[in-house]
Amino acid sequence: MQRHPPQTGARFTGWHGGHQIGHDVRLLQLPPGFPIVLSVIASLLALYIVARLVWPLRLHVSLRLLLAAVVLGMALHHRIVAQFAGTMASPEIPKMAIAVLATGFTTLLLSALFLLLLDAALLLAKLLKSGRAAAALRARWLRPLAGLVALALGIFGVSQGMAVPKPRSIEVRIAGLPAAFEGYRVLQLTDIHASRLLTGDWVRKVVAESNALTPDLVVITGDLIDGTVSARRHDFLPLGDLRAADGVIAITGNHEYYAQYSAWMQAFRGLGMQVLENTHTEVRRGDAVLTIAGVTDPVAERYDLPQPDLAAALNGADPAAPVILLDHRPRQAAANAARGVQLQLSGHTHGGHILGMDQLVKRANGGYVSGRYQVGDMTLYVSNGAGLWPGFAARIGVPSEITLITLRGAAATEK
Question: What DSSP designation does 239 have?
Answer without folding.
Answer: G
